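Page 47, continued from p. 46.
Same chain as before, 165 aa.
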Amino acid sequence: MASKISEVLGNAAAIAKGLTVTFKEMMAPTITEDYPAAPAIFQERFRGVHVLQRDESGLEKCVACFLCAAACPVQCIYIEAAENTEQKRISGGERYAEVYNIDYSRCIFCGFCVEACPTDAVTHGHGFEIASYNTSTLVWRKEQMLTQISPAAKPVAPLSEGAGH
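Result:
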């Protein structure tokens, strides 16, 4: 009989302890973000949609080394390289990424591509609104990810033949 009473008292104490936690949480102030009326607040290390960076002169930082594609565990990055010429200078290196696609239906936002990039061309931005009913819209091309040229950056003019030599 005594064991039954102690069991009932133990169960009642457990329920009281659980209700105490519940009531404490009910009395705490509610924190609500006013999204989409107000911009979302992100932590500094948030991993959103990728951004392809430019250097100070406005050239693309990506030199098509394929290290980001090699580091990607789900193989969602596709790159086609092309050679820079004196008439058409896209990046600071010998090559540039003519095609740079990321398939966000496969991307797991692990950050391995960002860590593998030797030129810091690929970074994570704060974009997160990429949901779609059509998976073909989840393949983002270089033009969608490339940062805009800032007004302070002046593109480097190609060298004319024979000049400066």
